[in-house]
Amino acid sequence: MSELNANFQGNYEGGFIDLSARKRIESLLDSGSMRELLTPFDRLTSPWLEKQGIVPQFDDGVVIARGKLDNKAVVVAAIEGGFQGGSLGEVGGAKIAGLLELAIEENRKGNPTAAVLMLETGGVRLQEANLGLAAIAEIQSAIVELRQYQPVIAVVTGPVGCFGGMSITAGLCSYLIITREGRLGLNGPQVIEQEAGVEEYDSRDRGLIWGLTGGTQRFASGLVDAFVDDDVSALSTSVRDCLAQGVPALHRSDDISAPLTRLQQFDTREQIDAQRARQALTEGKTA
Amino acid sequence: METLQFTRPAQAARIQPALVGYVGSGDLEVMVEPLQGSQAEIHIQTSTPGSEIRWRQVIEQIEARIALPAMRMDIHDFAATPGVIRLRIEQAIELASATEAQA
What we know:
Order of helices and strands of chain B: EEEEHEH
Organism (chain A): Marinobacterium mangrovicola
Distance between the termini of chain B: 39 Å
Shape of chain B: globular
CATH architecture of chain B: 2-Layer Sandwich
Keywords (chain A): Transferase
Helix content of chain A: 25-40%
CATH class of chain B: Alpha Beta
Number of helices of chain A: 11
Helix content of chain B: 25-40%
Structural class of chain B: alpha+beta
Shape of chain A: globular
Largest interface: A-B, 23 and 25 residues
Largest sheet of chain A: 7 strands, mixed
Strand order of the largest sheet of chain A: 1-2-3-4-5-7-9
Distance between the termini of chain A: 45 Å
Largest sheet of chain B: 5 strands, mixed
Structural class of chain A: alpha/beta
Protein name (chain A): Malonate decarboxylase beta subunit
Number of strands of chain A: 9
Oligomer: heterodimer
Strand order of the largest sheet of chain B: 1-4-5-3-2
Order of helices and strands of chain A: HHEEEHEHEEHEEHHHEHHH
CATH topology of the largest domain in chain A: 2-enoyl-CoA Hydratase, Chain A, domain 1
Number of domains of chain A: 2
Radius of gyration of chain B: 13 Å
Pfam family, one (chain A): Carboxyl_trans
InterPro entries (chain A): AcCoA_carboxyl_beta, ClpP/crotonase-like_dom_sf, COA_CT_N, Malonate_beta
CATH architecture of the largest domain in chain A: Alpha-Beta Complex
Strand content of chain A: 5-15%
Number of domains of chain B: 1
CATH topology of chain B: Ribosomal Protein S5, domain 2
CATH class of the largest domain in chain A: Alpha Beta
Radius of gyration of chain A: 19 Å
Number of helices of chain B: 2
């Protein structure tokens, strides 16, 4: 859809967080190289939201594209955090899974193709339940296959952050980039409070929440690879650096025995805070 | 959710597909595509029930200011205010009517 892409040409300066999903991709790729797949004009909306009285979006909140990064072939997906909390349903999930499978095929044919995922998502779209979960499982198995060939780079900048099943997706990526405004966690604060009790985890305590799940903490705890400012050019440099590093010798998600031991030794009787969490996650770590 | 449809007289014009906005709180997405003939077909899905009169008024206000091109317009509205609606519709028509952007 060259007409569509033509409307998004331009130079971007400043913050990344305020950009729409489509513009985030455009701002990252080599100028003029973005080719969106399954554009909004294909009208591939969620078949489930309308049945439940919820207004759909033409791209189902997910933008997928092929393009070039430093003249290397990449596929990029970006989730629109503002639409239904960036939740992944059947269509949006299948778009990302299909895109990653396309990259796998290209690699098998001998055309190196890496992937970048911009994850602003609360996780599975509850209105689409199992279909969203199935899509997330497909995304995850595609990442595990693709990352053997080429890096799969995840970017979490905020404002939504990355939660639920999609936080596991982020953890499976070859590289994970975060900003101070980005958050990463399996369960959202209110879910944890509901399950563990307000004494354990007060979802209104913003300092505690950001201290534990915010970008600063995640970087300091070694759960992400790069910490960048909310700035288009800083982010773009960081993604390109990760791409240049190639496939990591050991993926974080394959390196589980040491973190598991540290977690098993953790004393949960005392209220956790950012400092103790950081210590527990990094103690005795060499890299 | 409510589905509304308006058909309005319009001028044959060369336009290109355009999309603005998104379906986020207080906002809407507006898609414009060319349509043969001299009508503007406006299809609306809105989260605000009972808003038909308001939509008609917004469209009439826009018509008083600019000539609608022949088009199919699709709107997904997530509780946008009339001001935001008008802004988005005018933005979409402007983008669709703009001479081909430089590649």
